[in-house]
C-alpha cells in the first residue's frame, strides 16, 4: 500500500472544541490527526451522498 503524503494544516478553533476533540480521539484510541482525518472524511462522504439524492 502506497503511503499518502501529508501536510500540516492549521485551523483556529474555540478552546472548548479543541478539548472535546482531543478527548474524543483518546476515547476512540486514535491519534488526534487520525481522528480528525477520519471524522472529516466521514462528514464529506455523508454530505456528498446527501447532495446526490
UniProtKB/TrEMBL annotation:
It comes from the Bacteria. One of its GO terms (biological process) is regulation of DNA-templated transcription. This is CopG family transcriptional regulator. It comes from Amycolatopsis lurida NRRL 2430.
Amino acid at each position: 500500500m502506497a503511503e499518502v503524503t501529508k501536510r500540516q494544516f492549521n485551523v483556529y478553533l474555540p478552546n472548548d472544541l479543541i478539548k472535546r476533540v482531543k478527548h474524543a480521539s483518546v476515547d476512540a484510541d486514535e491519534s488526534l490527526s487520525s481522528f480528525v482525518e477520519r471524522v472529516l472524511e466521514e462528514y464529506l462522504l455523508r454530505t456528498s451522498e446527501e447532495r446526490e439524492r
